[in-house]
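Hey,
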Amino acid sequence: MHVVRWVVGIALFVALLFLALQNSEQVTLKFYHWWSWQAPLVFVVFVAFAIGAAAGLLAGAVRSARLSRQLSRLRREQRRGDGAPSADWTRTGAVPGTTPGSGPGFE
């Protein structure tokens, strides 16, 4: 599987390299008649890809940070005993709020 990943990666790199070599013409980007920029087409596509990847990574990092803060808050509440059930009941099979031996069939 590891070899297949490398083969696919190299094939993709070579295909993108040939695509870049075929699209090396100069293009002009105009920003509302205020500013224009000339660059090779492949560079413009690469910059657009890099901006998109950075935006995606930033969105993932923000979500991860938010979930991490929420998890630490829940752990703090559980340590203080603010009514959050402990994780011990999942190991023992007992339902929180009941005592062992209570319930139907134990009368």
